[in-house]
Amino acid sequence: MKALIICLVFGIASLLPADSINRRFAAPAGYKKIISSPGSFGAYLQTLPLKPAGTHTLTYNGAIARTDPYTAAVVDISIGNQDLQQCADAVMRLRAEYLFQRKDYQSISFNFTSGFKCDFVHYANGYRYANEKWVLKGKKDYSRENFMRYLNLVFSYAGTTSLQKELRAVTNTNDLQAGDVFIKGGSPGHCFIVLQVAENGLHQKKFMLAQSFMPAQNIQVLQNGSPWFSLHEAVDVPYGDIVVAANLKRF
Predict the structure, then answer these.
(1) Which of 81, 155, 173, 242 is deepest in the core (most CB within 10 A)?
(2) Residue 20 covered by a domain
(3) Digit-coded pLDDT (tens) for 4-37
(4) 8 lies in some domain
(5) Distance in angstroms (rounded) separating the CA atoms of residues 195 and 192
(6) Does residue 188 have a cis peptide bond before it, meaning omega lies within 30 degrees of 0?
(7) Which stretches within 125-245 are classed as H helix?
(8) Residues 220, 75 contacting (CB under 8 angstroms)
(9) Sorting pLDDT into bands at 50, 70 and 90, what band is 188?
(10) Alpha-carbon distance 182 to 247, whole Å?
């Protein structure tokens, strides 16, 4: 029986990322992590696998990113070899990956800056984007390879302006949760995604942030002395001034 229990525990542990947001980062002193509900977008973010500690944030062409000094960790997810997966693209990538692994294909949809609705189901069923409409050109393909081709299309035509319009405003910052996005559209615009939230006995919250940047780079967990940020303190990273209640949005 003891051996069986050990095997079962080992089997469950082996299903979890060896090093993830939850495992690597402890809550700040006096705070407790708010663990997201199983199966939620927040729970997906909190189990994102990380590259080994000390890994540099790199751009799509292998150079050390200018944001590297703010790296707390690097998310172990591909960035491709083109300058496509920038700030809003990284947020859309994480949301799409979460839905793809759940096979919730109907929910994978993002608007282009033009307003065109680019949904994965059309793309997977063989349609291709041409002059603001879908044109049937191929066969049905719901593979990961085709999913990545779809995302590259989204990255090419969507950005902070379109994503900001799609997201819902969070009117109560006390409800801040993993998966929320601080975003300000424009050229340049920028956005950060909330990975984890912790709360103290006074219900004050601290949170962890991730981003991509320009040029396209690894998705990095941010830090500036600490990986935990607060709405009541200056977020001293590039574009940190957008981390305010007025810019808080949610899928």
Answers:
(1) 155
(2) no
(3) 333 333 333 334 456 999 999 999 999 999 999 9
(4) no
(5) 9
(6) yes
(7) 144-157, 160-166
(8) yes
(9) confident
(10) 5
Share of the chain above pLDDT 70, in %: 93
Residue 15 falls within a domain, yes or no? no
Each residue of 150-175: pLDDT tens digit? Answer: 999 999 999 999 999 999 999 999 99
Q: At what angle do helices 144-157 and 87-101 cross, to 10 degrees?
A: 150
Task: Give just the sign of the alpha carbon dihedral 80, 235, 185, 205.
Answer: positive
Give the chain's domain count. Answer: 1
Query: What would the pLDDT profile of 87-131 be if each residue is shown by its tens digit?
Result: 999 999 999 999 999 999 999 999 999 999 999 999 999 999 999
For residue 131, give Cα distances in angstroms to 40, 114, 126: 36, 11, 16
Cα–Cα distance, 45 to 9 (Å, whole number): 23
Tokens of 220: 């990095």
Q: What angle do CA 27, 28, 33 make, to 5 degrees?
A: 30
Q: Give the three-class secondary structure for 241.
A: helix
The pTM of the full predicted model, rounded to 2 decimals, is 0.92
Q: How far apart are CA 229 and CA 163, in angstroms?
A: 23
Report the alpha-carbon angle 203-206-209, nearest 5. 150
Domain around 71 = 31-250
Cβ(106)–Cβ(154) below 8 Å: no
